[in-house]
């Protein structure tokens, strides 16, 4: 039986009982997925570090996460006296609920028959479904900020502020990485974006018929790579888990939540957000529920209930990517995090969108290709000139700063001691390429030998 890909006209016709079944399936899938993902993450990281991981509670330690969940649910809920009680209780709910709602527009498969009713394997869809996912992610950040603010703790407040600043920079880059997909697919509906990746087409540029792959990860590779980085920052995972930096903020925004049920809701929301951003990556770039090659050679690969298996397989691989990154990369400094988001990801995204839009315009049959290329050349030359101007100004500032540091060292040579004892110039800033470390050691040795 042929199962066509659904479109927007196929939604809104399900009976109420079928919509409830779909909603319950998504809820149960996410809850069970969180339990299995915590166990999987512990196992994978332990094997990468030559350890066994959980292996006592249940077969292969499968009941360890169940025991942890029961412990947090039954543990005494302590509340500090100085907290804002309303905000303190609402913050975990605000961060958890949008994480579940974002999954309502994710397509799991094509049209199927459930108890005799033809329905798409997706709870609902909207003409702007991708924007709904971004909106839910933004609302979830309010929970983090309010958790820090309501706790009335300096460490928690700093964690909340870090998360708000982080989401501004990385969500802008994430939203820009979707623009090229919208240009390519011509829609913001998740089901229709998946349908557009069903088969490859051709690009007609200057009379040449260039074949294009079906999945957008190949034709829009820069957008996919930028999204893969931003989804780590969006979910506050390593190496961008600065809102929870234990070495600096004790525990971050949830410092005052101990290990009660509210703390479990924070952890639940984090893993559900990981599933959500992974499902969005699969939907927009990895063909959605379509079977990968060479499975796609089989005629029945994308029919019936088989596409749900391919979707879950891709979701598992995406989660393993999160675990691999966590086990491999260290946490970056906060200034490096913000600089990377604003100075690297966003400019690269804007440049790639310009290039993708240019090629999109060149594909139009009525396009004036000479005019489009001329405008593109002017924009590129102008951007290069602006970059060169700012680079020259930065070089002059660096040279001026180097001269100031040289003057500081000249003053240090004139008064090499403090309190009668030789003091090496170790408290002055070290600038790469201005004052080498070998020179500092040599000056310290000269000062010491001169006093002797």
Automatic annotation (TrEMBL):
Alphabetized GO MF terms = NADH dehydrogenase activity; oxidoreductase activity, acting on NAD(P)H, quinone or similar compound as acceptor; quinone binding
Source domain of life is: Bacteria
Q: Which GO terms describe its cellular component?
A: plasma membrane
Q: What is its EC number?
A: 7.1.1.-
Subcellular localization is given as: Cell membrane; Membrane
Q: What class of enzyme is it?
A: translocase
Provide the GO biological process annotations: aerobic respiration
Keyword Calcium in annotation: no
List the catalysed reactions: a quinone + NADH + 5 H(+)(in) = a quinol + NAD(+) + 4 H(+)(out)
Q: How does it sit in the membrane?
A: Multi-pass membrane protein
Q: Which residues cross the membrane?
A: 16-39, 86-106, 126-149, 170-195, 215-233, 271-292, 304-325, 337-359, 371-390
Its principal location? Answer: membrane
Which keywords belong to this entry? Cell membrane, Membrane, NAD, Quinone, Translocase, Transmembrane, Transmembrane helix, Ubiquinone
Q: Does the keyword Metal-binding apply?
A: no
Q: What family is this?
A: Belongs to the complex I subunit 1 family.
- What's this chain's function? NDH-1 shuttles electrons from NADH, via FMN and iron-sulfur (Fe-S) centers, to quinones in the respiratory chain. The immediate electron acceptor for the enzyme in this species is believed to be ubiquinone. Couples the redox reaction to proton translocation (for every two electrons transferred, four hydrogen ions are translocated across the cytoplasmic membrane), and thus conserves the redox energy in a proton gradient. This subunit may bind ubiquinone.
Subunit composition?
Answer: NDH-1 is composed of 14 different subunits. Subunits NuoA, H, J, K, L, M, N constitute the membrane sector of the complex.
For this entry, the protein name equals NADH-quinone oxidoreductase subunit H
Name the species this protein comes from: Planotetraspora kaengkrachanensis
- Its gene is nuoH_1
């Amino acid at each position: 039986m042929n199962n066509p890909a659904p479109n927007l006209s196929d939604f809104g016709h399900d009976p109420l009982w079928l919509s409830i079944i779909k909603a319950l399936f998504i809820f149960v899938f996410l809850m069970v997925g969180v339990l299995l993902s915590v166990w999987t993450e512990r196992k994978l990281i332990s094997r990468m570090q030559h350890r066994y991981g959980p292996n006592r509670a249940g077969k292969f330690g499968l009941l360890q996460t169940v025991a942890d969940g029961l412990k947090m649910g039954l543990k005494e809920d302590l509340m500090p006296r100085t907290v804002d009680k309303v905000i303190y209780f609402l913050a975990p709910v605000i961060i958890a609920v949008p994480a579940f709602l974002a999954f309502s527009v994710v397509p799991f498969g094509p049209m199927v028959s459930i108890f005799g009713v033809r329905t798409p394997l997706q709870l609902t869809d909207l003409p702007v479904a991708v924007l709904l996912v971004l909106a839910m992610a933004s609302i979830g950040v309010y929970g983090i900020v309010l958790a820090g603010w309501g706790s009335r703790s300096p460490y928690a407040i700093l964690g909340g502020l870090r998360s708000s600043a982080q989401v501004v920079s990385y969500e802008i880059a994430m939203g820009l990485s979707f623009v090229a997909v919208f240009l390519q697919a011509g829609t913001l509906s998740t089901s229709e974006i998946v349908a557009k990746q069903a088969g490859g087409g051709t690009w007609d540029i200057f009379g040449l018929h260039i074949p294009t792959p079906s999945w957008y990860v190949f034709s829009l590779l820069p957008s996919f790579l930028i999204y893969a980085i931003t989804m780590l920052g969006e979910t506050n995972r390593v190496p961008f888990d600065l809102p929870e930096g234990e070495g600096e903020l004790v525990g971050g925004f949830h410092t005052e939540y101990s290990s009660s049920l509210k703390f479990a809701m924070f952890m639940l929301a984090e893993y559900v957000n990981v599933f959500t951003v992974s499902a969005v990556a699969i939907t927009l770039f990895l063909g959605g529920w379509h079977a990968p090659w060479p499975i796609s050679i089989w005629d029945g690969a994308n029919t019936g209930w088989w596409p749900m298996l391919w979707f879950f397989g891709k979701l598992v691989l995406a989660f393993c990517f999160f675990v691999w990154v966590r086990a491999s990369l260290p946490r970056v400094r906060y200034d490096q995090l913000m600089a990377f988001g604003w100075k690297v990801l966003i400019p690269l995204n804007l440049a790639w969108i310009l290039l993708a839009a240019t090629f999109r315009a060149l594909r139009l049959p009525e396009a004036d290709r000479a005019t489009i290329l001329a405008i593109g050349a002017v924009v590129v030359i102008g951007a290069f000139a602006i970059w060169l101007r700012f680079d020259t100004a930065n070089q002059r500032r660096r040279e001026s700063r180097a001269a100031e540091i040289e003057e500081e060292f000249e003053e240090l040579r004139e008064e090499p001691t403090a309190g009668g004892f030789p003091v090496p110039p170790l408290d002055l800033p070290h600038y790469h390429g201005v004052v080498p470390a070998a020179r500092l050691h040599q000056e310290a040795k000269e000062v010491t030998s001169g006093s002797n």
